[in-house]
C-alpha cells in the first residue's frame, strides 16, 4: 500500500484499512482502522475517505505541535498538578492525606531530578524521567522531612508506585491541555517482584486455627480470612446476620469496589462460629460484628495484633528475604486469603466458582494461585480431602466457649 508524507495505508485480512501516521517527535506511530464504504469503492486509490481525513489531520497536529507548542516546564506542571490534587474530593471528602503527601514527595523528587525538562518535547522528557526512575534511591523521611535512612534501594513495588504517580501527572497534563502528548504513553518499564505471594504452610495454618482464642478479636479476624477467603476489611465488617446457616454461606455486603457476593461456609468455620455464637439452633441469636472492635480502624494496630497472634500460635511472621527483590518477606493479613485460594485449588475445587467466592474480576487473578497450590497438593492428597473442603481444625481441639460477648 502507498506511503506518503509520513502516512502509510494497508489492507487488513478483515477487509478494513489501517492508517498509520508517524509522530516525528517520538518516532512512534498512531494507528486507526476504517471500514470501506460504497463511495470508497469508486476511488482509484486504496484506503477510505474518512481514513485520509483522519491521517491528514493527525499528521498536521503532529507537525503543528512540534513547531509551535509552547514549552511546558516540568516543575511548573508539577506545581499545578499538586494544587489541583489538594483540592480534589472523593464522595464529598478530601483525598487521603497520606496519599497526597506520598504524591507530593514523589513529584517533588522528580522535578528536582529533572530541572528544565520541557514536557512538550516528548522524546527528551521521556528519557529524563525514565533515567530518574531507574536511578531511584530511597531517602525515607518522616512528616517533618527528617531523613530516617540513607542509601537504601527502593522496593520494586514502591518504585512502581512512583512510576504510577509520574504517569498520572502526564495524563492530567494532557487532559488539561498543558501538553500535547503524553511522553510516557509508550515507555515500558521492568520491575522485579518476588515470584509468588506469601502464604502460610499447612502446619502454620493449622497452628493458628488450633490456637482457639475465641475471646480474641484478632483470632476471629484471622480465622475469617483464612477459612473464608475474605479480605481484611470484609472480615472486619462481617456481622452475625451475614451468616446464612441454612444455605451454608457467608454474605459479603460490601466488598472491594462496593460489590457484594456470597462465599461458601467451610465446615471448620461453621463449627467455630457455632461454638462462638450458638449456631442456627441457638435460642438467642447474636447480632452485630463477629470480630468486634479490633484496633478501631487503625491499620498499624491491626498489624500489631496480627503479629502478636502469630507469635502466640507459634508461627514466625518473618520468612527471610525475597529471591528477586532482596526485601524482607513477611506474613501479612492478606496472606490468609492467598492461603485459602491455594488450598481450595489444591483440593480440586472449581476455579470458576472460587473466583466468585474471592470476588476476583478475572480468571487470571484466580488461576495465578495454581502454582502456589502445588506446594499443598501432596499433603492434601495424602489426607484425602474433599474438593473445596478445608481441614484445618484438628478433631481433638475443643474451643473454649465465650459468654462475655453475648449482647
Kindly report the CATH topology of the largest domain. Answer: hpI Integrase, Chain A
Q: Find the structural class using helix and strand composition.
A: alpha+beta
**Strands side by side in the biggest sheet:** 1-2-3-4
End-to-end C-alpha gap: 78 Å
Architecture (CATH level 2) name of the largest domain: Orthogonal Bundle
Topology as a string of helices (H) and strands (E): EEEEHHEEHHHHHHEEEHHEEHHHH
Number of strands: 11
Report the total helices: 14
What percentage of residues falls in helices of 4 or more residues? 40-55%
Please compute the radius of gyration using only Cα atoms: 28 Å
Q: How much of the polypeptide forms β-strand, as a percent range?
A: 5-15%
Notes on the structure:
The chain has helices at residues 49-68, 74-86, 97-113, 122-134, 156-175, 202-211, 217-228, 232-237, 267-277, 299-312, 333-346, 351-358, 363-367, 370-383, and strands at 3-4, 7-11, 17-23, 28-34, 89-90, 93-94, 243-244, 249-252, 261-264, 318-321, 328-330. The chain is 43% helix and 10% strand. Strands 1-2-3-4 form a four-stranded antiparallel sheet, with helices on one face. The chain is of the alpha+beta class. The longest helix is centred in the N-terminal third of the chain and has 20 residues, at 49-68. The chain has 14 helices and eleven strands.
Amino acid at each position: 500500500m502507498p506511503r506518503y508524507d509520513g502516512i502509510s495505508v494497508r489492507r487488513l485480512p478483515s477487509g478494513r484499512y489501517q492508517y498509520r501516521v508517524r509522530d516525528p517527535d517520538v518516532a512512534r506511530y498512531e494507528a486507526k482502522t476504517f471500514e470501506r464504504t460504497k463511495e470508497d469503492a469508486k476511488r482509484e486509490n486504496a484506503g477510505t475517505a474518512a481514513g485520509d481525513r483522519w491521517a491528514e489531520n493527525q499528521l498536521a497536529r503532529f507537525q503543528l505541535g512540534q513547531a509551535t507548542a509552547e514549552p511546558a516546564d516540568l516543575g511548573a506542571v508539577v506545581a499545578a498538578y499538586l494544587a489541583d490534587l489538594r483540592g480534589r474530593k472523593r464522595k464529598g471528602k478530601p483525598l487521603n492525606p497520606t496519599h497526597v503527601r506520598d504524591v507530593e514527595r514523589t513529584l517533588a523528587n522528580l522535578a528536582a531530578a529533572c530541572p528544565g525538562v520541557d514536557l512538550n518535547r516528548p522524546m527528551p522528557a521521556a528519557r529524563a524521567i525514565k533515567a530518574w526512575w531507574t536511578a531511584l534511591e530511597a531517602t525515607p523521611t518522616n512528616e517533618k522531612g527528617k531523613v530516617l535512612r540513607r542509601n537504601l534501594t527502593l522496593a520494586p513495588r514502591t518504585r512502581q508506585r512512583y512510576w504510577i504517580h509520574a504517569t498520572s501527572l502526564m495524563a492530567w497534563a494532557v487532559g488539561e491541555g498543558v501538553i500535547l502528548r503524553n511522553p510516557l504513553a509508550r515507555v515500558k518499564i521492568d520491575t522485579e517482584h518476588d515470584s509468588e505471594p506469601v502464604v502460610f504452610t499447612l502446619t502454620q495454618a493449622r497452628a493458628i486455627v488450633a490456637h482457639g482464642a475465641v475471646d480474641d478479636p484478632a483470632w476471629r479476624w484471622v480465622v475469617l480470612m483464612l477459612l473464608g477467603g475474605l479480605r481484611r476489611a470484609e472480615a472486619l465488617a462481617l456481622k452475625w446476620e451475614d451468616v446464612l446457616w441454612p444455605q451454608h454461606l457467608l454474605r459479603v455486603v460490601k466488598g472491594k469496589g462496593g460489590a457484594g457476593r456470597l462465599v461458601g461456609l467451610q465446615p471448620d468455620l461453621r463449627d467455630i462460629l457455632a461454638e462462638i455464637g450458638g449456631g442456627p439452633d441457638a435460642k438467642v441469636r447474636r447480632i452485630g460484628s463477629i470480630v468486634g472492635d479490633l484496633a478501631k480502624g487503625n491499620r498499624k494496630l491491626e498489624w500489631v495484633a496480627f503479629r502478636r497472634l502469630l507469635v502466640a500460635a507459634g508461627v514466625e511472621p518473618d520468612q527471610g528475604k525475597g529471591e528477586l527483590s532482596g526485601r524482607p518477606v513477611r506474613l501479612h493479613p492478606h496472606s490468609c486469603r492467598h492461603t485459602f485460594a491455594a488450598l481450595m485449588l489444591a483440593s480440586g475445587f472449581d476455579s470458576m466458582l472460587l473466583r466468585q467466592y474471592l470476588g476476583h474480576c478475572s480468571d487470571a487473578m484466580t488461576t495465578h494461585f495454581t502454582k502456589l497450590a502445588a506446594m499443598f497438593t501432596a499433603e492434601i492428597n495424602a489426607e484425602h480431602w474433599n474438593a473445596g473442603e478445608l481441614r484445618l481444625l484438628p478433631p481433638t481441639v475443643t474451643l473454649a466457649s465465650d459468654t462475655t460477648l453475648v449482647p
